TrEMBL record:
This is 2-aminoadipate transaminase. SUPFAM superfamilies: PLP-dependent transferases. Its cofactor is pyridoxal 5'-phosphate. One of its GO terms (biological process) is alpha-amino acid metabolic process. Belongs to the class-I pyridoxal-phosphate-dependent aminotransferase family. Homodimer. The keyword Ribosomal protein does not apply. One of its GO terms (molecular function) is pyridoxal phosphate binding. It holds the Pfam family Aminotran_1_2. It comes from Tindallia californiensis. CDD domains: AAT_like. The lineage of its organism: Bacteria, Bacillati, Bacillota, Clostridia, Peptostreptococcales. Residues 53-392 form the Aminotransferase class I/classII large domain.
Length: 410
């Protein structure tokens, strides 16, 4: 029998988490708080229908949309990235520094192709985005966790880990972090850019949630403080336009962007042209501003409903984060609750049928860390379903806790 590549063994654990996540998202009988999708009501179906009709004309952009395109991406979408999404945040780069990707995850894949050899060290947050761990595992990198608190990654621990492990790359989600929803403070953003420069390490800043803010003060990206080109900023159109379009982007200095373009050319030649043109026209024709206002309004209500439901239904002693934006909150439950074990019952018990993502998979350090935690996504679930699902999940948690206490006392 043919042998699989060693990388497939390296990624088995993280891949299993992702399989379960997507499985729950697509089961109509399950109320799923697992995936990081936006509300269906916020998908601009009617606008995209009209734009597509205009685009798909031979005298319009139809021929361009159905043809091969540039590796770096359609020029006017790259111009949108720079003028509408990057430069207003304090990142002063040109169109030549921007590349359109096939979804936000391609940034991690390309960065690993360009920088990572088997055994290289990547410093990540504790906890961090499990899908990124899957990609890093696939490239046989070794992920080392850096401590976090309510203000994001701890910079003292980061510098200590840099000195100890001599990493090839650092990976950071600074705004409404996945999975916790916390935001890296301003002083730590400056320090992260400084450390990347001082120790000559590339820093991948993954920031796909930053534009879905409900309250609080907007902070500049880490890239805005990068004076030496060590920071690569990646983002996605999945949260602010359409996940099905599979569009993302990154910005980097000339030396790095050229290598990333070579890797992309060898991977998939270029991102699909039709969704790029549709997205570019969506922004150029002025649809984004109203769409963005509605996006934030809808998800603000869902966040508030989720936080209220945790406080109302979850066991005493539960702690949760208070995200100012994004799609996730993080719940830390009493120590005797094992969320990995509980997930099987939560998704299969006909009286519950509720999904979440168990906390253990977000911790690269292992050792059972995060066993009593869960990530809850409120984006794709209407408020009434959030209340229903959280009530069922809360009842199951109370039952589980009582069952555990009875077993111990017996």
């Amino acid at each position: 029998m043919s042998k699989f590549a060693k990388r497939m063994h390296s990624m088995e654990k993280s891949a299993a988490v992702i399989r379960n996540l997507f499985g729950a998202m697509n089961d109509p009988e399950v109320i799923s708080f697992s995936g990081g999708a936006i509300a269906q009501e916020c998908l601009p179906v009617e606008i995209i229908h009209e734009l597509t009709q205009d685009i798909m004309q031979r005298e319009g952009r139809g021929v361009e949309a159905l043809s091969y395109g540039p590796v770096m991406g359609v020029k006017d979408l790259r111009e949108v990235v720079v003028s509408d999404l990057v430069r207003p945040k304090g990142v002063k780069l040109s169109v030549d520094n921007a590349m359109i990707l096939s979804g936000g995850l391609e940034a991690m894949n390309l960065m690993c192709q360009v920088f990572i050899d088997p055994g290289d060290i990547i410093l990540v947050e504790s906890p961090t985005f499990v899908h990124s761990i899957e990609i890093f595992d696939m490239f046989q990198a070794r992920c080392i966790a850096v401590e976090t608190d309510e203000n994001g990654m701890n910079m003292e621990d980061l510098e200590a880990k840099i000195k100890k492990y001599n990493p090839k790359m650092m990976y950071l989600i600074p705004t409404f972090q996945n999975p916790t929803g916390i935001t890296l403070s301003l002083d730590r953003r400056k320090k992260a850019a400084q450390l990347a420069s001082e120790y000559d390490i590339v820093l991948l800043e993954d920031d796909p949630y930053r534009d879905i803010r409900y309250n609080g003060v907007e902070l500049p990206p880490v890239k805005a403080f990068d004076t030496t080109g060590h920071v690569v900023m990646a983002n996605s159109f999945s949260k602010i336009f359409s996940p099905g379009s599979r569009l993302g982007y990154l910005v980097a200095n000339e030396r790095i962007i050229n290598k990333l373009a070579d890797a992309k050319s060898a991977t998939n030649s270029h991102t699909s042209i039709l969704p790029q043109i549709i997205c570019a026209e969506f922004f150029k024709k002025g649809h984004y501003q109203e769409h963005h206002r509605n996006l934030c309004a809808v998800h603000r209500i869902r966040r508030d409903t989720m936080l209220d439901a945790i406080d109302r239904y979850f066991p005493e002693g539960t702690r949760r984060t208070q995200p100012d934006g994004g799609l996730f909150t993080w719940a830390e439950l009493p120590k005797n609750i094992n969320t990995t074990e509980l997930l099987v019952e939560a998704t299969t018990n006909p009286e519950v049928k509720v999904a979440y993502v168990a906390g253990e998979g977000f911790f690269t350090e292992g050792g059972g860390k995060g066993r009593n935690c869960m990530r809850l996504s409120f984006g794709a679930v209407p408020p009434e379903k959030i209340r229903e699902g959280m009530a069922k999940l809360g009842k199951l948690l109370q039952t589980y806790e009582s069952r555990y206490s009875f077993t111990v006392s017996s």
